[in-house]
Amino acid sequence: MSSNTFQLSDSTMSPVPDGKGMRVGIVVAEWNDNITKALLDGAVKTLKENGVESGDIKVEVVPGSFELIYGSAQMVKSGEVDAVIAIGCVIRGDTPHFDYICQAVSSGIAELNVSQKIPVIFGLLTTNSQEQAEERSGGILGNKGDEYAVTALKMIAFSRRINK
Ligand code: DLZ
């Protein structure tokens, strides 16, 4: 299976758990908001399609992807959700800023996953161009928000199995 067409929601993958009773927090960055809004919409749509109730989806906005670290940490510590999806989009520019943000966010989210009790899903889209971002946020390559939602549901189910 090509990584370009791989979808976590494919029928060849393990079934998506029923999301009824699952509470999902989403922290979404405003930078590149035409992309992050589409990713958010995709994630929310998939959560609802899989049984998550509207009232169990909590969305908070932060300015940029760097702030996803703090935003996700606070959402985790609130105790009000069973998983957090961190959504952002970083598009490579002419300066090394791209690398610093990507490195910081991936390390920050990884740290939360090992130090906290609930899963934090890495929903940071990192692309070389606006076109690549559009292709992955509702374009010809699907909507990665869908995958983030499926991952959140699978990880909540995993956590419940392990911790029962
Ligand atoms: C500063 C900056 C730059 C250059 N590029 C992006 C980007 O492509 N995507 C994104 O989400 N945020 C970007 N930011 C903002 C930083 O994430 C952060 O908000 C600021 O450095 C303030 O902490």
Characterise this structure.
By secondary structure, the chain is an alpha/beta fold. 45% of the residues lie in helices and 21% in strands. The protein has five helices and six strands; from the N terminus they run E-H-E-H-E-H-E-H-E-E-H. It has helices spanning 33-49, 68-78, 97-115, 130-135, 144-163, and strands at residues 24-29, 57-62, 83-91, 120-127, 137-139, 142-143. The strands form two sheets. The chain has a four-stranded parallel β-sheet, with helices on both faces. A two-stranded antiparallel sheet has the order 5-6. Strand 5 (137-139) and strand 6 (142-143) form a beta hairpin. The radius of gyration is 15 Å and the shape is globular. It starts with 23 loop residues before the first strand and ends with a helix. Bound molecules: ligand DLZ. The site of ligand DLZ has 14 residues, from strand 3 and helix 3. Ligand DLZ binds at residues 29, 31-32, 63-67, 88-91, 97, 101.
